[in-house]
Every structure is written in structure tokens, then in C-alpha cells.
Amino acid sequence: MDKPRVVLGVSGGIAAYKACELLRRLTESGHDVRVVPTDSALHFVGEATWSALSGHPVSTRVWDDVHQVPHVRIGQQADLVVVAPATADTLARAAHGLADDLLTNTLLTARCPVVFAPAMHTEMWEHPATRENVATLRRRGCLVIEPAVGRLTGADTGKGRLPDPAEIFEFCRRVLARGALAAQDAADLAGRHVVVSAGGTREPLDPVRFLGNRSSGKQGYALARAALARGARVTLVSANAALPGPAGADVVAVGTALQLREAVLKAAADADAVVMAAAVADFRPAAYAAGKIKKKDGQEPAPVALVRNPDVLAELSASRPRPGQVVVGFAAETDDVLANGRAKLARKGCDLLVVNEVGERLTFGAEENEAVVLDRDGAETPVPYGPKDALADVVWDLVVRRW
């Protein structure tokens, strides 16, 4: 009775088989899932499969079990409705308020967050009719995940691929985690473009060696996922993070601090907020050895001369390419954490600075974090030790407050 109730709508596209993996992840993580397919979806995955995996009877029609009024009750009782895959036809019917089957009736009666994960050919996704339907749904507060780029049906490749089911699950988990707040305003970042940097830069010394750091990128990816679940368009500048791209994010892979600077400044040109969660190297080798540096018997290695990298956070804070842009920095400290953080906030000129203590076995690579968010106005918001997702939502709450 206490399980979150999720309605999984499945429309008739070849990606319908991937919804089985999403269903499995939802049920195994403790959600009560009711599958509502369209008639077309049953051409790809049969009714018996959905019933067996969900533990509930499956129907596409409003006339089954009429005494239970399923076309009203299913949507009314849901904590989340997710449609994956959502075809161009389903998006169009949802945008225009049609109610000719059980799924579209459910969408009209749902008062909970509604998530669409589109999947279709590139030409269909880019068609003005589809773009207008997506804009309409987003304007009404629905969360429409940007499709992935990759192999489509047949030999076609392009944007329109269903995001990985694991990432759709993470998206849904983040929406559900906001609970009652999400029901009131599931998309408080809707219409906003945010840029998040994540991971750690690597500065090449020779073809096989580099100077780097221990950042895994997990906090930056948590920030990206949280923003996506709140309706934002997200550009994720990822530096050497071995993590799957969050569903719907525009991921820009970079390696060095100079590459990260270029990507962040380009994306920040029309961004409402920039969160610099990446660990950017302060220095890089002054010279790059074209061949592997060899050790020589009886000789000590030559010193490695370093030069400063550009200070991307300070540059962003000073330039503010878009009026009202909120800039958030991160400070990884090993001692005098708050004192160093306050000094860095004043030096960098950003609006918010997330200060946390780091070490060989602390923060980097962990699933949890503890921090204090410093505001340039003097406020301090402590975030107790807990999942990095929780810190991510606190950061976005403070950004929204500034807007």
C-alpha cells in the first residue's frame, strides 16, 4: 500500500521492447507499476509480457472493468506517469487532449508529474508539428526528455533514439524523490538552460602520462540529472567521467582545462545558470613531450615545469554573457574548509560556492557528500552528509531563489 504508484504508458514504436527493462527497474526498486499500452504497442510486446512483469492485468481499452472506472482511476491514483517510448502520434494526441484509448484518458486525469520519453526517426522529431506538440506539453508542466542520438530503425542514425532505460529510470526516480513538491511544480526549471561541468581535467605530459585528479564526476552528473528532472535544458560538459550520460542532457566530452573552458564559455552564452562542479586543474605542464619520457639509469628525472591554466569560474563570474545569469562554483578543500571557501567566494566573484572537504577516501568517487553552500550575500546553507542527489536539489533550490 505504501509503494509509489507508477503508470508506465507504452506507445507503438520499435523501442517498446526497451520499456521492459524500465519496468523491471521500477518494480525491483519497490514501485507498484501499472502498464497501459496502446493497441499499436501490443504489436511489439504482447499483453502477457506486460502482465507478467508488472503483476497487474493489462488493457488498452476504456471498456474493460467498467465498474472500476479505469479510465479515471488509474490516472487519479498515480504518483507518476511515464510514457516510454512516446511516439510522435502519442505526443500529438496528448498535446491536443484526445482521449480515444486508456492511455490518453489516463494522461488527462493524472494530477501527478508526467514524463514523456520520445522515440522516433529524426525527421519526425524535427518536424514542426512534433516540436510544437512538445513545446505545448512542456508549457503545461509535462517533462519531455530529449531523445538520444544513435542507431535508429534499420540503417538510420540520428537524434530520436530512446534514452537508455537505466537513465530514464534515474530521471523518474529523481522526479518521484521530490514527492509532493514535484506534484505542485514538477518543472520549476522549465524554459531554463543550465550548464553543468563535471569530472576532472587531465593535462598531458607525454603521450601516455597526464596530471589529473580524483574527481569521478558523480556530483556534477547528479546536478545534471536533478536539473533535467525539474524541466531544464541541460548542457553537461564532462571531463573524463566514466559515467553514462543522463537522459536528455547534451553531453560535451572534454579532456583538458583549456577544452573545458572553451566548451563551457560556448554553452554559457545563452545559459540561465552555470554550475562549475568539475575539478579543473590549476596548472598544466609547460611543455608536452612528443614521445614517452624515458627513465635513464643513474639519472634523476628532470623537473616538470608548470604554467597556470585559465580560471574559468572567475572568468564566467566577471563576464556574465547573459543578464541575470547565476554562477555557482565548487571548492574542494582539505583544511580550514570554511575559511578557505569564504576567501575563494570573494576572489572568484560567483553567486554561490559549494564548499566541501575532500581527501583520498573522502567525497571523490563516493555516492554521498557533505557541504556548505555559501552565498555572496553572506548566507550559509549547510547540507548534511547524504546522497549527492540531495545536495544537487539544494543547489538548484538556491539558484531558483536567486531567479
List keywords for this structure.
2 domains, Rossmann fold, alpha/beta, 19 strands, five-stranded parallel sheet, 403 residues
Would you kindly provide a written description of the structure presented here, covering whatever features stand out?
Pfam families: DFP (PF04127), Flavoprotein (PF02441). By secondary structure, this protein is α/β, with parallel strands linked by helices. It folds into two domains: 5-184, Flavin prenyltransferase-like (Rossmann fold); 193-402, Rossmann fold, CATH 3.40.50. Helices cover 34% and strands 25% of the residues. The chain is built from 14 helices and 19 strands. The chain has helices at 19-28, 47-54, 70-77, 88-95, 102-109, 122-126, 128-139, 165-177, 179-184, 218-229, 257-268, 312-319, 337-348, 388-402, and strands at residues 5-10, 32-37, 80-86, 114-118, 143-144, 148-151, 157-161, 193-199, 203-206, 209-211, 233-239, 250-254, 273-276, 283-285, 306-308, 326-333, 352-357, 368-375, 380-387. The strands form five sheets. The chain has an eight-stranded mixed β-sheet, sandwiched between helices. It has a five-stranded parallel β-sheet with strand order 2-1-3-4-5, with helices on both faces. A two-stranded antiparallel sheet has the order 6-7. Strand 16, helix 13 and strand 17 (352-357) form a beta-alpha-beta unit. The longest helix has 15 residues, at 388-402. The protein is elongated, with a radius of gyration of 24 Å. The chain starts with a strand and ends with a helix. The model has no long low-confidence stretch (mean pLDDT 91).
